[in-house]
Every structure is written in C-alpha cells, then in structure tokens.
Specification:
73% helix, single chain, globular, mainly alpha
C-alpha cells in the first residue's frame, strides 16, 4: 500500500472514530430509555433538535459558545424529558389499550409536535453557528516534526468527541456508583425484583427519560458547530440512534458505545471509498444484517464470549 493510500485510510479511520463517538452519545440516551421503560422513543431525534436550537439561540442572542451551552441545554432537556414522561407517557402506559405500543405512538406524536413548533418559531431555513474555529485543524506534522504522514484532526470534531467521552464517563460513574444509578440499572435488569427491593420504579422511569433527553440534548450542542440545523433534522438522528441501539443490543450501554463506533467507521469508509450518498443505504444494510445474523446485537456476542458459550 502506497503512503498516499495509507494516509487516506488512516484519515478515514480517524474521522470515523470521531463521528462514532458522537453517535454513541446520541444512542446512549435511547438505550437507557429502552432498557428501563422497554419502549422505543421515536421523538429522540427531535429532542436533539431542541438541544441544537437552544445552542443556536444562546449563540445568536448571547454569544455563548455552543460547547458552553451544554451546561444549559442538557438541564433544560432533562426538565423537558421529565415533564414529558410524568405528564404524557406515564399516564398512557397505565391505560389498558388494544395496542400495547400506544406509548411508542405517543412519542411519534411528541416528535411531530416538537418539529412543527420549531418550524413555526424558526421557519424552515437552514441555520448554523458560525464559530471562528469551524475550519481549524491540528496537523500531525505540526505536533511531530518529520512525521511520515500528513494526518489532520478537525478542531470542532476533536473537541466534540472529547466532550462526548467525558459525558459518557460521567454517565458510567452515575450508573455504577450512585444509589439512583444503581436503582435505574436494577429497574432495567429486573422490574419485579426492583419493586420487591423497594425501588420506586415510576420515579426511576421519570428520571431515566429525563437523563436520556439530557444526553441527546448535550449531543445536539456538540453537533451544532459542525452541522446545519433545520426543524426536520431530528428524523435522521432518530433513525441513527435506533440502528445503533439494535446493533449494540437492546438496553446495553456498552453495546451502544461499540455500535456508535462501528456505524461511524462504516459511514466514514463508505463516504471515502464509495460515495456520500450511500450512508443511508449502509445504515439499512447494517440494520437488516444485525437482525438476521446477530439479533441480540454486539452485546450478546460479548456476553457469549464472557461465559464461554
């Protein structure tokens, strides 16, 4: 392999890892909601869109950097998620209906309402946050004199990836070390056992939906320096989150991280060697392949290897 081809491959892999890290953060929110509540939140992408518009408004009106807006958007989305779960989703889950998936249908309606409200308030125009560092990059030759390859790291992609890793680490600490986090994990693993141990399951569901909304709201702030924003952008991220959740394994946070990295690498390689327009086709192919060959997702492979099956 020539040095030029090797350089293109390594640059593509770097871009894929950076993209996959952000995809993983988006999918983590859907994963923990699915793990605890056993429903698919089809308004997930629209909640991310709300986070992006919060970052856009803060940047446009108050000149707050999109990365700093994480500290405002994430709590705001947590409150929104808690309200949606407590006043809309919980009552629907308690009602006996012909369709047991009525709460999933409700999330579709919530997503439509959020998208239409964004259209009314911001119109359908494409908007962005023109930050000064949008086109900046770090070059390997600047960090290492005489480096054999001229690899580069996009500044906004690198910062977004780093913040996503920090948020993921904080989520792990919360779920593994705090009483509330342990209660959420217990509810996800065995609802009846959690009830017998005195866990307030309904409260854990409310907190979980708020937490999932906060995570995807934070992801929206990390994407806004890189992406344009428009009211219907949420649909594609809902699809991406769903594909990663299936790929990683339903309710598995480790699977969501691995699934995000796998999808990010796949899309990056596809864009470089086949074409940008093939990314949506590739997602569908991965989705179908996982359902056929690995119905339990990557997490099931990890569990089977762990127990020697």
């Amino acid at each position: 392999m020539s040095s030029v081809n090797l350089e293109v491959l390594l640059q593509t892999l770097i871009s894929g890892v950076l993209l996959g890290g952000l995809y993983a953060l988006i999918a983590l929110g859907m994963t923990i909601i699915m793990g605890v509540m056993k429903i698919i939140n089809l308004a997930h992408g629209e909640l991310m869109m709300v986070g992006m518009y919060i970052a856009f408004v803060l940047f446009s009106w108050l000149h707050i950097d999109p990365y700093l807006s994480v500290f405002i958007a994430a709590p705001a989305l947590f409150v929104l998620g808690v309200g949606l779960q407590k006043f809309l989703i919980n009552p629907v889950m308690k009602v006996d209906a012909i369709l047991p998936e009525n709460q999933v249908i409700l999330t579709v309606g919530i997503g439509m309402v959020l998208a239409n409200l964004a259209t009314i308030i911001f119109q359908s125009d494409y908007r962005q946050t023109p930050v000064s560092y949008a086109t900046k990059a770090w070059y390997l030759t600047d960090l290492w004199k005489g480096a054999p390859l001229e690899l580069s790291l996009s500044f906004p992609w690198s910062v977004s990836f780093t913040i996503a890793v920090l948020i993921t680490a904080c989520l792990w600490f919360f779920l593994a070390k705090t009483d509330t986090g342990k209660s959420i994990r217990a509810t996800a693993q065995d609802l009846d056992a959690a009830l017998l141990m005195g866990v307030n399951v309904e409260r854990m569901r409310v907190i979980t939906f708020g937490l999932g909304s906060a995570l995807v709201g934070a992801a929206g702030c990390l994407f806004i320096p890189i992406y344009y924003i428009y009211p219907d952008i949420g649909g594609q991220f809902t699809l991406i989150s769903f594909v990663i959740t299936i790929l990683g394994g339903l309710g598995s946070t480790v699977g969501a991280i691995l699934g995000g990295l796998i999808l990010g690498l796949f899309e990056s390689l596809t864009a470089t060697y086949i074409g940008m327009g093939w990314a949506p086709v590739g997602r569908f192919m991965i989705f179908v392949a996982v359902l056929i060959f690995i119905p339990g997702g990557v997490a099931s492979l990890l569990r089977s290897r762990k127990f020697g099956k």
